[in-house]
Amino acid sequence: MSRMRYHKCLTVALALATLLCLDAYIRWSPLGEPDPVPLPLATTPAPPTTPAPPLPLHHSLQILANMVPRADAYWNRQLHQRLEELGGGNGTSASAGTAASLGVPDWAAYPEPLQRFVSHGARRHYPLLLEPSRPCPPDGPFLLLAIKSAPGAFAERQAVRQSWGQAGAGVRTVFLLGAPDGDGDTPDISGLVAWESRAHGDVLAWGFQDAFFNLTLKGLLFLGWAGAHCPGARFVLLGDDDVFVNTPRLLQLLAGLGPGPVYAGHVMAGAWPVRAPGSKYYVPESFYAGPYPAYAGGGGYVFSGALLGPLQVLAGLLPPFPIDDVFAGLCFRALGVAARPHPGFRTFDIAPSDRASPCAHRALLLVHRRQPPETLRLWRQVRDPQLQC
Ligand SMILES: *[C@@H]1O[C@H](CO)[C@@H](O)[C@H](O)[C@H]1NC(C)=O
Ligand SMILES: *[C@@H]1O[C@H](CO)[C@@H](O)[C@H](O)[C@H]1NC(C)=O
């Protein structure tokens, strides 16, 4: 081979190699467009002996009987007593003495909201005061956004309507409210909420006091409504009105999922009750003993609409637990549906330096918490085709 030809060959080979490298760089560069293929949810394979979820009721009750310690704490006793009544215990019935003494030794030291929860927690039928004007389509929506909101949070709801919760193809938003008519300490805003409901047709309100320890009740009432009026929803996002949801990205991810039941979000695994009396989440030893099941943070999680019915049946049979996302985790676990973590759900927010960054938000699915003006700004920026990340 002449020197000349050798040089030509080398030049051609180098050019080819450069092109290949460039191509690979464009494909894989973190500076290019973000990967359009949604990240798969980290799958937690079920043990091979477990039947396909949701499990038959007796199986769910058995799981609960084995999962919740038979301790002398109020809720543990309530649950096991309930399981005995339902025939879901494992045969060794709770001792009569334990079941009979439903008192709580340190009751006087319970924070007032927890006392109110214990006193009123058993009641689960409250009148529906306001409901959406339009029914759900028979085989939809693809995604039902069910947003827990306090009656007075008008600006939060309006920000959701004008941003990530706006009606779109396959998306329907409903807001879940307690009673707007005040109770001595809070003003009566029922006229305003009724007006809002007429104007937007997306409000569900029930006649119970909207309080943190009534969120489990709100969830139960929502399950009842959704099972009757929105049973065709493919997926449900149950979340707060102060989160930012990247709805297009979430839709893309959900569309790529297989047919099995889904329960996914920011998963807390191996959590224990908060035992610090000053905390909003305080649960005394005498109320609940044992660890929590793996659960998805209540700021926002997503689940299959096919689970609405089984959840309603199961949750309706159990004594409600004051912390709604823990209670939900327990129910999903009993139905045999594992909580699947996804790093795009950030219910504890992201690094402070990224909190105003549209690029950081474009990569997420849900983040807690954002004020209404931040939500509107982020929504505009994240969807801006000019946005360079
Ligand atoms: C039934 O419950 C008892 C009391 O908690 C426990 O000791 C036992 O291991 C359980 N048996 C089964 C089969 O789960
Ligand atoms: C929940 O609502 C009921 C009905 O309004 C009320 O009696 C109860 O005190 C509320 N629970 C809490 C923990 O505030």
TrEMBL record:
Its EC number is 2.4.1.-. GO terms for biological process: lipid metabolic process; poly-N-acetyllactosamine biosynthetic process; protein O-linked glycosylation. It is an enzyme of class 2 (transferase). Pathway: Protein modification; protein glycosylation. InterPro entries: Glyco_trans_31. Pfam families: Galactosyl_T (PF01762). It is found in: Golgi apparatus membrane. Transmembrane segments: none annotated. It comes from the Eukaryota. Keywords: Glycoprotein, Glycosyltransferase, Golgi apparatus, Lipid metabolism, Membrane, Signal, Signal-anchor, Transferase, Transmembrane, Transmembrane helix. Belongs to the glycosyltransferase 31 family. One of its GO terms (molecular function) is protein N-acetylglucosaminyltransferase activity. Residues 1-24 form the signal peptide. GO terms for cellular component: Golgi membrane. It is a single-pass type II membrane protein. It comes from Alligator mississippiensis. This is Hexosyltransferase.
